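Hi U.,

Before I forget, here's the chain from the pilot set. I'm dumping it here mostly so it's searchable later in email.
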Amino acid sequence: MTTKGIAHYHVNDKIDKFFLIKNSQRLLAKNGKPYLTIIFQDKTGEIEGKLWDINEATCKHFVPGKIVKVNGEVQLYQGKHQLRLTLLEPANDANVRIEDFIETAPESKEDMLAEVNTYIFEMTNSNIQRITRGLVAKYREQFLEFPAATKNHHEFVSGLAYHVVSMLRLAKAIATLYPTLNKDLLYSGVILHDLGKVFELSGPVSTTYTLQGQLLGHISIMVNEIGKEAEELGIEGEEVMLLQHLVLSHHGKEEWGSPKKPVIKEAEILHYIDNLDAKMNMMDRALERVKPGEFTERVFALDNRAFYKPNF
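Structure:
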């Protein structure tokens, strides 16, 4: 039995190993019969498979967060790898732990938190510094554990913190090139822009959207959190509104889920570096799965493009 991970399988490869169920959805086929679409994951990536001829007992066995024994073959379907299942059963091996299947950020929580705190320490505006420091301290544990999304980019344990640290490094480089940028605003915007995801998402394992996330979303949640933190600290002034604007506008356009378009320089830059870091993460993860001289699967979130991996 091979020890390689999901990201390293190719079309026609046989699979016989344990995986974690990341997501499971009961659907109806054209003939009216129910089936399950299951997303399997390990530390290297994820793959979709379909389980036919199911019943209610089957649905109870194969739910998110469960470890299962999988036997099947990798196929190509609509430009993406898909697993044709020949056997799927609950794992009965006591030595198999959920931690063995969960991807984590490539940097430690301690190092990432220390780096974030360095940027906060460098802030010279006390109002911005206090609000930022207070919110990071209040949600420190979740900030260091949660992914940045359920799919597409940084969807792994500590993905949120890793996304923020990567963006802070970009922000520092850009602020060096454009010294008229207010670094306090930019750094705080980076740190806070997605912090509302600790309310929007369910947690680091088999991540789904919470009711609060579905009804309100991380942007509006974080705008309210900034307002509450400022009130608790007795802070009034333009800084509060500017931080709220950074969060409100970081998606850039209304059609991308942004309630406001950026109207200050720091908000415009925040949008660009957020977009850049997310896209680079998506491309890197797709390219890790192919050999030089090959194209990746189509990446839906990147205009459904397939990317080429050069031979040098």
